[in-house]
């Protein structure tokens, strides 16, 4: 893990550290991302559709996607 990747993980951990709901969101989406990457049949078009959410939760998921290398 590079220094930049480590910094992104630290930032995400800081953003969710005192918010159980956000922790749950990030952990469940991490599992969703892993399943999406591992299961070729579920994403033949390369699109993962998510439920609508508020701006803060979208920010968290964008940070998580950065860590996974989606962007």
From TrEMBL:
Q: Which Gene3D superfamilies match?
A: R3H-like domain
Where in the numbering of this chain does the R3H domain appear?
23-71
Work out whether the entry's keyword set contains Phosphoprotein. Answer: yes
Does the keyword field hold Phosphoprotein?
yes
GO molecular function terms noted in the UniProt entry: nucleic acid binding
- Record keywords, A-Z: Phosphoprotein
- What's a Pfam family in this record? R3H
Q: Which InterPro entries match?
A: R3H_dom (IPR001374), R3H_dom_sf (IPR036867), R3H_domain_containing (IPR051937)
Q: What is this protein called?
A: R3H domain-containing protein
Q: Which taxonomic lineage is given here?
A: Eukaryota, Viridiplantae, Streptophyta, Embryophyta, Tracheophyta
